[in-house]
Amino acid sequence: EVQLVQSGAEVKKPGESLKISCEGSGYSFTTYWIGWVRQIPGKGLEWMGIIYPGDSDTRYSPSFQGQVTISADKTINTAYLQWSSLKASDTAIYYCASQYTTWGSWGRGTLVTVSS
Amino acid sequence: EIVMTQSPATLSVSPGERAALSCRASQNVRSNLAWYQQKPGQAPRLLIYGASTRATGIPARFSGSGSGTEFTLTISSLQSEDFAIYYCQQYDNWPPGYTFGQGTKLEIK
């Protein structure tokens, strides 16, 4: 069974750093792209970027370039999304998704709340 | 960036009736178009990929059509569990990157 298990909810203050994770299992993690999608509460879905765990080739949407860093550790089948300095506007649910089954496999999401 | 425009924003339909949701791309995305269903508190669920191929386990009442810039998701006979928000998404190439439509809320009439 294909699974993407995301790390738990986070509550952070503006200016703090954060790294959330997405661990894949049940398929060849290194040979399918992993993507990150943002959903601000009550709003739509936005692609942030994708990474190929096999060689860490990473691509960002223009809106998120320079705002976040996407990485992966293929030895532990895990992708990451990180911020160096969070803003209140980063409050959202962040989903990871796998290209396996043509982007049909999704994590349950990680809620990130940024508040002073 | 490829802009995806969905219409209508809200669609009110009675159970048992047919619903047709539209999605337009600002440039040619070939057949690299997916449809997702999202219910409150849940991750998106893939319904259709390749514009017209049902994902595993998706009932036959869901069908997709179109290519290039115009796409349609049709639900032939609405069940109570189908009332949700539906998003189209193009995955043609990166760059410029994948994009979602703004969503269509399917509500009970």
Key features of this structure:
heterodimer; A: 116 residues; mainly beta; 7-stranded mixed beta sheet; 4-stranded antiparallel beta sheet; 11 strands; B: 109 residues; 49% strand; globular
Task: Summarize the SSE layout with pairings.
The complex is a heterodimer of chains A (116) and B (109).
Chain A: E1 3-6, E2 10-12, E3 18-25, E4 34-39, E5 45-52, E6 57-60, E7 69-73, E8 78-83, E9 92-98, E10 105-106, E11 110-114
Parallel strand pairs in A: 2-11
Antiparallel strand pairs in A: 1-3, 3-8, 4-5, 4-9, 5-6, 7-8, 9-10, 9-11
Chain B: E1 4-7, E2 10-13, E3 19-25, E4 33-38, E5 45-49, E6 53-54, E7 62-67, E8 70-75, E9 85-90, E10 99-100, E11 104-108
Parallel strand pairs in B: 2-11
Antiparallel strand pairs in B: 1-3, 3-8, 4-5, 4-9, 5-6, 7-8, 9-10, 9-11
Description of the molecule:
Chain A is mainly beta. Helices cover 0% and strands 50% of the residues of chain A. Chain A has no helices and eleven strands. In chain A, the strands form two sheets. In chain A, strands 2, 4, 5, 6, 9, 10 and 11 form a seven-stranded mixed sheet that branches. A four-stranded antiparallel sheet of chain A has the order 1-3-8-7, with no helix packed on it. Chain A is globular and about 40 Å long. Chain B is an all-beta fold and 109 residues long. Chain B contains no helices and eleven strands. In chain B, strand 7 and strand 8 form a beta hairpin. In chain B, the strands form two sheets. In chain B, strands 2, 4, 5, 6, 9, 10 and 11 form a seven-stranded mixed sheet that branches. In chain B, strands 1-3-8-7 form a four-stranded antiparallel sheet, with no helix packed on it. The model of chain B has no long low-confidence stretch (mean pLDDT 96). Helices cover 0% and strands 49% of the residues of chain B. The chains are: A mainly beta (116), B mainly beta (109). Chains A and B meet through strand 5 of A and strand 4, strand 5 and strand 10 of B.
